[in-house]
Specification:
257 residues; Spore Coat Polysaccharide Biosynthesis Protein SpsA, Chain A; 7-stranded mixed beta sheet; two-stranded antiparallel ribbon; 9 helices; 21% strand
Length: 257
């Protein structure tokens, strides 16, 4: 069995929701929620935050989490993760979990790890979940993915893919689903992650601003595992308030039981 390590890249600056990883209206910072979600994986041997500053590092240490500082000038989360992965020579698989994914299920993380365990020739895996709303489908912030019969990603885009020649609302309820949202979690072979971090961005990546397109344009494959429960990253104040309200309702339910 491969040894899997989860790394959460954490950057203090964020455009649409300033300092989002340190928001704590629930009583816990967002980075703590993500860290605890990562800890629910049954297949990962550990979790570590790759922080870009002392403020985030201090927040992680405050709740007892493991954290290491990375280069503040690292151009992307992938580069930040790779910096720690270089030192984790014991790990075969590195899982890149976003710090703004506080509701990711442990089973979903394990699904990405299992794809690599069950496919020794695969270098990288990720997740997708069905899209059932047109607003979500047309939102550029919602990244879409299409994959072949073997579960290999064919393309990722901010546009609706596949693009219907003629719209029919039944497309949103079809079985199998016509559209899939990409869930921003990646599992890599450690050696491939280090290779990826050294690759220059490709033209597709520069156009769509999606790092995963660097992999496809280089000719490598990404396996896609489908999960049934949607999970959404927190990018805007509205996203965060929806998460806070959901968390409060869940806490009230648990107290009433």
């Amino acid at each position: 069995m491969s040894v899997a390590q989860i790394i959460i890249p954490a950057r203090l600056a964020s455009t649409r929701l300033p300092r989002k990883l340190l928001l704590r209206e629930t009583g816990k910072t967002l980075i703590q929620h993500a860290y605890e979600a990562a800890g629910r994986s049954a297949l990962a041997s550990g979790v570590c935050v790759a922080a870009d500053c002392d403020e985030i590092a201090d927040a992680v240490r405050a709740f007892g989490g493991r954290v290491e500082l990375t280069d503040p000038a690292a151009p992307s989360g992938t580069d930040r993760v790779a910096q720690l992965a270089r030192k984790m020579t014991h790990a075969d698989i590195i899982v890149n979990l976003q710090g703004d994914e506080p509701e990711i299920a442990g089973e979903s993380i394990d699904r990405a790890i299992e794809l690599l365990n069950n496919n020794p020739d695969a270098a990288m895996s990720t997740l997708a979940t069905p899209i059932r709303g047109r607003r979500q489908l047309e939102d550029p912030a919602c990244v879409k993915v299409v994959f072949d019969a073997a579960g290999r990603a064919m393309y990722f885009s901010r546009s609706a893919i596949p693009h219907p020649r003629q719209w029919d609302d039944a497309l949103l309820t079809s079985t199998p689903p016509a559209f899939y949202q990409h869930v921003g979690l990646y599992a890599y072979r450690r050696e491939f992650l280090l290779e990826l971090a050294a690759m220059p961005p490709g033209q597709l990546e520069l156009v769509e601003k999606l790092e995963q397109l660097r992999v496809l344009q280089s000719g490598r494959s990404i396996l896609v595992g489908v999960i049934d429960e949607p999970t959404f990253g927190i990018d805007t104040p509205e996203d965060y308030q929806a998460f806070v309200q959901k968390h409060r309702k869940s806490s009230q339910f648990d107290t009433a039981r």
